[in-house]
Amino acid sequence: MDDEKRRLVRAPTGGDDRGRAASVKLKTAYKRTMSSQLWLERQLNDPYVQRAKAEGWRSRAAFKLIEIDDRFRLIHPGARVVDLGAAPGGWVQVALKRGAKAVAGVDLLAIEPIPGAELIQADFTDPGVGEQLIARLGDAPDLVLSDMAHNTVGHQRTDHLKIIGLIEAAADFAVETLRPGGAFVTKTFQGGTVAEVLNRLKLSFRDVRHVKPKSSRADSSEVYLVARGLKPR
């Protein structure tokens, strides 16, 4: 199943009409709910999904990190990178393609091996998983990426608390493990980042910004928080 359906990892979003062919309609809705049918039609007609397949990326979400890195130059040759919520591996691929020396990723789902990357199937929030990632990486990271997101349950308060909990966990990990000058990127949602998280990041990093990549679907509320220049502890 595509990563959009997972509990703790990225829900791919993005896309525009550039290079779009005629809209694809499913010939049958046999045993599909209306929501799953609409989701599948959107995937089939998404130009970024088509580009990802053509260019060998494991997910369309690769284009989001490419856009962010083109703007902020976060991945440099020899960098060590941690990817939280890494399945199916699109961001890992981008990090390696752009010169990362070592990449360690974790996800609830199994990730097909990627040469040059250390991949763990686990819940990042479980005790000891963060330490495993650093051990696999071999040294302190230069960049921590997080595209984690709980699937919504339909209860606004519960969904909000789960999202914020993941952002806080990823931010804590980044602040505690990054080498000075390092950077942190995390998915959040418009109106979804609590002041406490932003304040901590602003105290810990020299520059903190919200970014919405063009490859993120216009109807999605997701945005990315980019924190650069971890201050010396």
Describe the fold and architecture.
It is built from 7 helices and 7 strands, in the order αααβαββαβαβαββ. With 233 residues, the chain is an alpha/beta fold. The protein has a single domain, classed as Vaccinia Virus protein VP39 (Rossmann fold, 3-Layer(aba) Sandwich), CATH 3.40.50.150. It has a 7-stranded mixed sheet, sandwiched between helices. The N terminus is likely disordered.
**Into which percentage range does the β-strand content fall?**
15-25%
SSE-based structural type = alpha/beta
Please, what is the CATH homologous superfamily?
A: Vaccinia Virus protein VP39
Oligomer: single chain
How would the global form be characterised? globular
Write the SSE topology.
Layout: H1 34-44, H2 47-55, H3 62-72, E1 80-84, H4 90-97, E2 102-107, E3 117-121, H5 129-137, E4 143-146, H6 156-177, E5 183-189, H7 195-204, E6 205-211, E7 222-230
Parallel strand pairs: 1-2, 1-4, 2-3, 4-5
Antiparallel strand pairs: 5-7, 6-7
What characteristics describe this protein?
single chain, 233 residues, alpha/beta, Rossmann fold, seven-stranded mixed sheet, 18% strand, disordered N terminus
Short description:
By secondary structure, the chain is α/β, with parallel strands linked by helices. It has helices at 34-44, 47-55, 62-72, 90-97, 129-137, 156-177, 195-204; strands at residues 80-84, 102-107, 117-121, 143-146, 183-189, 205-211, 222-230.
